[in-house]
Every structure is written in C-alpha cells, then in structure tokens.
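Q: What residues go here?
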C-alpha cells in the first residue's frame, strides 16, 4: 500500500471506525455528507474519502423487513446492542426518523437496510422478512450482448440483464419518498431503482443505455495507459493499467465498482437498458477510487466486500422492479462471466471455549439460535461439544472460531456479562516460533552484531543488484514511490545502506543483522519468504570470513543443538569476490550464501572498508527440527589437555582434520577444538600451522599422562597419513 509522506495528512488513511476521533474535522465532513450524499448515478462529489463507515436509514424502512415493527427508540437500542451505534437522529414530519448508524469497516454486510434489519432481528428475537419479487411474465428477449471477462481475479462475477422497451420517467411517489428519506436525490425511475437496491441490499448496480454500447459486447479488462473516459459527473478521467474498466468494443464505458460513463448513462431517450450486476475486488476498487480521488456509494460498498453469491438475487429483484415500474420486457435470463465459485467456509466453534471467553454460562442451544438468526447454518454436534457453522456469504469477516465467539457474545448481550472482582490468568510461555527467533537474535548479539530494521522499498538499481537467479522484481506503480518503487528481494541492500549511514557518522568495525520479508516473482507467481542478512567489516578478508562462519555456527548451534553440522562450500556468486564466495549448508540443507562483497558492489554502496555478508533463509532455518539434547552430570575428575600444532598444506580445511581425529574413536577423548592457524616464518610458503586442542577425561577416575601419550601418537600418525601433516616442534 502506498506510504503517505510524514508531513502529509490524508483523511482517507484514518481507520473507518474512528469517526469520533477525528474531532471537529470529522464533524464538518459528516455535516457536508448529510447535505450531499449522492446515489450511484447522481453526480457524486469528487476528492473526498470518508474516514469512517456509516449508513443512513429510516426506522420505517428498516421495519419493512421485520415480522413485527420496532419503535424508533427500540431500533436505536437494538442496533446499539449489536454494536452499531446511532450517531445522530433526525425526526421527520411523518413520524419517521432518519438515523445515522456507525459501522466498523469490517462489516460490509451492514451498509444496507436489510443487513441492519438482520442485526436488529437477531437482538430482539424477531424474524427477518427477506425481500423478494417475482418476475412479471413477458415475451422472450433476444440477448445481443456478449460478456467477455479478462480479469477474473479482479472481477470474479459479472452479469448483464437486457430489459427492452422501458419508459424512463419520474419514479412513483413511494420510491421517491423512500429515496429522499435518506437524503438521496430522485433522478428517474431506472436510476432510482438501482439506488434503492443498493441501499436495501448493499448491492451496487449500474444501468447502461443499450443503444450507446458499441460492438454488441461488454469487456471487463484493465484500462490502457492514457485512455480517457468522461464520468457521469462530467469529469475527464485519465486511466492507467492499474484500473479495471468496463468497456464496449471500442472504449471504456465505466470504471469497475466506482462510476459509470457519461456517454452510456440512462436518459429520457433510453428504450433498452443493460443492467450490470457484479462483484469486484475491493482492493482494486479502493486503489482506483483513491488514485482518481473519486468516491461513490458503489465504491464505498465494494471496498468493504461484496460476495459473488449475493449478486444474482439482488440483480433479479432490480430487473423485476424495472419491468413492473418502468414497463418493458425481460425474460429472466442474464449473460454471466464468472470464475468458479468457492464453497462457503465452514468454521467450528467449541461451546466450552465460547463460555470460557465470555466468562458466563451460555447454553449450546442458545448459541445455535443466535447463529441461525444471523443467517448462518449452524449444526450442533451429537455430544453438544461444538458447533459446525457454514458461514453465510454476506459475512466476509467470519473466518475463525473466535469470530463466531464474538458473534454469540455480542448478540447474547455484553451488558449481561457481570464483571468479576478477580481475573484469573493462565501463565503461558512464549510461543515456540517467538522463542526460536529470540534464540537466534541472542546468539548473534553475543557475537557482536546489532539488529537493524530497514525500509522494504528500494531503488531499482539496489534491488536489481541482489536479485536471485530466476526471480523478477515486484514494483509499485505509484507516483509517490518514484525513487524507491521496488519491493526488496534481498535484505542485503538495506543492510549495506545502513552500514553506509553508520560509516558517515564515524562508526567503525560494525556488525549488523536484519531479518525481514523479501518479495519476488518466481515462475509467474508471487514468492515471499523471511530472510536473515548479516554484514560485518572485514579489513582482513580471511578474518572476516572466519568471523562470519563463526557467527552462523553460533546461531545454528544455539537454535538446533551442539550436534548441528554447518558446512561452508566454495561456490561462485556474482555478488562476491572470486575465492571469497561460498554456499551455507546446515544439517545437509542449503540455507543461504556468504562471501566478500565485490569491489564493484562495495563502490555501489560507497563503503570504505571491505565487508563480508551472508543471507540465509530464516524460514527454512526456523523450520529445522532441533537435535535431541541430553544432559550429563559434571565429572568430579580432572581432564588432560594436549595441544598439537600440525603443519599442513594451505588447502587442507579444518573439517578434514576434525573428522580425521573423530574417526579414530580414541578412548576417553572428550573434545577436539580448533585453537588457531599460523602462517609465516619459519613455516614455508604454501603451508600453515593448525593448532588443535585435545581434551581427555575418564569419568570414573583420574587419568595419568602416560595413558594419553599413545593416543597422541596415534593422532600424529593418522594426520600424517591422511593430510600429510607434520608435527611442528
């Protein structure tokens, strides 16, 4: 999501549930919106995004969907009991009352009168009367509109209904009264019906004048860069590829989920209409709306979520009303272009868990009843221990057990929960994943590293320099991120920039690490993984490589146990110098790379001192199973230590020496440790002296030196045979 600069206040970035918190400014916007809240095709105001979710209704309209009416005060109390507060009440001359209901941003189902009626019914025990309308009999209507959907991800469901022979004119009095009672302006009968359905059911609709559509088809596609469209408010809009457009065969005729075009709007000359009903991706609609500074009641609802399964019924009701009120013919069919619809999610709630969270006794049957009144399909298990609930399509916010618990508790009544004088708290340890992360952090800190946190967006050059083979960058198309449009594909660029800033203020010999999510495209799919990056100064490259290996071994050993095997193998990499590049294996699995940064890379980040860096797959590291750990009692008997300095060829690695000694299986050998390596006089060039410390101990008695001498002799002989070692005098 685009980041707003710190010195810019954008009211649209406030959470939707924080209306009161914006104070005077929120009040001014609220009054303005009450004076001019526009319908789907009513010339909506531009350059205004609401910092809150709201819904204006009247008590009489809500009561039409209840089996028994509620008084105005009862409506307010019922909605408040469901967690939907009334911010303002305006009494109307006919005895009705206009109510401004506050709604949290996750409750897209409540930006409709039926949605609020459902909540009131659930609280008061009434029955919800679902609106329905039968299709008036009419002659078959030939379909001449083809629907082509090129963007199922952004538009999972699109339908078009053709209604011929309509007579566009004033709406009947009851419809005008209903529309104007919630501060909407009556336009004509067709537009008023689409607005009525929008507020009644929360389903945005759009009507095209069929005669103005070119090519006999509707195409759902991304807009082309530079394409122009005149919106119904008369504004000229320049579109780009990030926006989803509804087009005919030649040009865009609507912005998906936001606003229709002026050229195809319904007018007094319209005879045949195409009724659009669809479900659009909320994030896409919000991006388009924000980018164009264009808001409408439709975008307001699509941003909060409209499920494909709810579209057809609302569209059928609208089409039937148009036939009844405006005349015309519709044969009950629709041209549909939709992706396969997923099964409704099934969530299981444990009844005892619900009671424990609530802190009070709620009967299992009552829980089932509450969920049924909210439109769910709950089933109580045979033993009464849990409820399996098929979530209704209008409730996009219910995905987990705790969501169902919240529904039960709020409808049961938060006011019925008696506060306790004492709160019982179960002491629970850290989550295992958190504990394992901390182990790695502590191990690296003990090695002298400082943890840093850097920004996830990078300049293109920085991000491209550390892109793994086979991956592509993910970039953000936004004018505010022109300098840093790329999401990081590696943590190393951010670490190196951080090192540069510390260099500029005089910090020397720095050791830094960072763990962060990295993003890239791999084989056409988005890939995200958490990576661990390490960076340390290395005036002496060999010492730097050894220090980096030691840090990696320390972190791996702390996390996975002493038996952990860390293997560093030479492997060429464009990021690192030749001979200073390696791949890291831990317990046989490849987890990352390390090496000395090339001079070109060092110059790119303007670093004065050579650096050694490493990048490990942190997710893979944390997923490894730690080795079983056994604890032994401390021996009461002393050990005997012997240091051997073995002169070997420069290319002989420490692991070969260590493995060779371990293979001898010497009696009473407790440990083998690397002490150091020496190069220089009197050691000949091409050779090095490696000092090894052998520790011997007998757990049952004190060892004598003469018992260890044969063991040392066998080590010297074995090393001479295996690696050509000569004991240094």
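A:
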């Amino acid at each position: 999501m685009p980041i707003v600069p710190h010195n810019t206040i954008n009211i649209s970035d406030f959470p939707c549930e924080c209306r009161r918190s914006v104070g005077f400014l929120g009040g001014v916007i609220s009054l303005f919106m009450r004076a001019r809240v526009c319908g789907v095709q009513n010339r909506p105001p531009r350059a205004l995004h609401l910092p809150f979710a709201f819904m204006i209704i009247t008590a009489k309209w809500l009561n039409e969907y209840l089996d028994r009416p509620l008084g105005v005060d009862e409506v307010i109390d019922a909605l408040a009991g469901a967690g939907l507060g009334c911010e303002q009440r305006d009494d109307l001359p006919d005895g009705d009352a206009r109510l401004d209901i506050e709604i949290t941003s996750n409750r897209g189902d409540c930006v409709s009168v039926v949605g609020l009626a459902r909540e009131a019914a659930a609280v008061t025990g009434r029955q919800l009367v679902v609106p329905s309308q039968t299709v008036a009999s009419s002659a078959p209507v030939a379909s001449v509109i083809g629907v082509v959907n090129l963007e199922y991800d952004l538009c999972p469901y699109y339908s078009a209904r053709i209604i011929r022979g309509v007579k566009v004119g004033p709406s009947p009095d009851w419809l005008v009264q209903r529309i104007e009672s919630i501060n909407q302006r009556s336009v004509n009968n067709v537009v008023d019906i689409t607005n009525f359905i929008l507020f009644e059911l929360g389903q945005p609709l759009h009507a095209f004048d069929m005669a103005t559509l070119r090519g006999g088809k509707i195409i759902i596609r991304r807009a082309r860069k530079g394409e122009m469209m005149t919106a119904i408010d008369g504004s000229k809009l320049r579109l780009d590829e990030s926006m989803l457009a509804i087009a005919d065969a030649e040009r865009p005729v609507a912005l998906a989920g936001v606003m229709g075009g002026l050229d195809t709007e319904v007018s007094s000359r319209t005879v045949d209409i195409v009724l659009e009903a669809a479900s659009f991706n909320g994030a896409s609609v919000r991006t388009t709306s924000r980018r164009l500074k264009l808001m409408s009641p439709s975008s307001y609802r699509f941003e909060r979520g409209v499920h494909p399964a709810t579209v057809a019924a609302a569209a059928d009701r609208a089409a039937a009303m148009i036939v009844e009120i405006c005349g015309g013919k519709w044969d009950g069919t629709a041209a549909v272009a939709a992706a396969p619809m997923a099964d409704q999610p099934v969530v299981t709630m444990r009844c005892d868990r619900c009671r424990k969270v609530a802190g009070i006794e709620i009967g299992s049957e009552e829980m089932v009843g509450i969920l049924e009144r909210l439109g769910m399909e709950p089933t109580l298990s045979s033993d009464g221990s849990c409820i399996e609930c098929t979530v209704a399509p209008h409730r996009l916010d219910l995905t987990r057990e705790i969501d169902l618990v919240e529904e039960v508790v709020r409808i049961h009544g938060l006011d019925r929960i008696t506060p306790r004088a004492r709160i019982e708290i179960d002491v629970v340890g850290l989550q295992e994943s958190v504990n394992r992360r901390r182990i790695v952090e502590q191990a690296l800190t003990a090695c002298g590293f400082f943890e840093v946190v850097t920004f996830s967006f990078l300049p293109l050059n920085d991000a491209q320099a550390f892109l793994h083979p086979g991956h592509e960058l993910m970039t953000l198309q936004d004018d505010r991120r022109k300098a840093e449009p790329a999401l990081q594909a590696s943590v190393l660029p951010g670490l190196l920039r951080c090192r540069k800033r510390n260099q500029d203020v005089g910090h020397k010999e720095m050791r830094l690490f960072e763990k962060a999510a990295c993003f890239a495209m791999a084989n056409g799919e988005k890939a995200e993984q958490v990576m661990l990056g390490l960076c340390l100064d290395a005036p002496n490259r060999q010492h730097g490589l050894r220090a980096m290996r030691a840090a990696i071994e320390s972190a791996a050993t702390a996390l996975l146990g002493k038996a952990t095997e860390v293997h560093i193998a030479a492997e060429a990499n464009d990021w690192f110098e030749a001979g200073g590049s390696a791949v890291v294996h831990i317990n046989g699995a490849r987890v990352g790379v390390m090496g000395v940064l090339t001079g070109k890379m060092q110059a790119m980040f303007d670093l004065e001192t050579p650096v050694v860096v490493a990048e490990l797959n942190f997710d893979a590291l944390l997923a490894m199973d730690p080795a079983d750990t056994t604890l032994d009692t401390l021996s009461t008997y002393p050990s005997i230590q012997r240091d051997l300095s073995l002169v070997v060829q420069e290319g002989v690695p420490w692991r070969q020496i260590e493995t060779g000694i371990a293979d001898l299986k010497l009696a009473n050998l407790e440990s083998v440790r690397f002490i150091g390596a020496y190069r220089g006089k009197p050691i000949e060039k091409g050779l090095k002296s490696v000092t090894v410390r052998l520790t011997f101990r007998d757990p049952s008695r004190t060892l004598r030196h003469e018992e260890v001498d044969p063991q040392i002799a066998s080590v010297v002989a074995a090393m001479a045979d295996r690696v050509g070692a000569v004991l240094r005098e």
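A: Context that may help when evaluating the design: The longest helix spans residues 541-560. The two ends are 67 Å apart (CA to CA).
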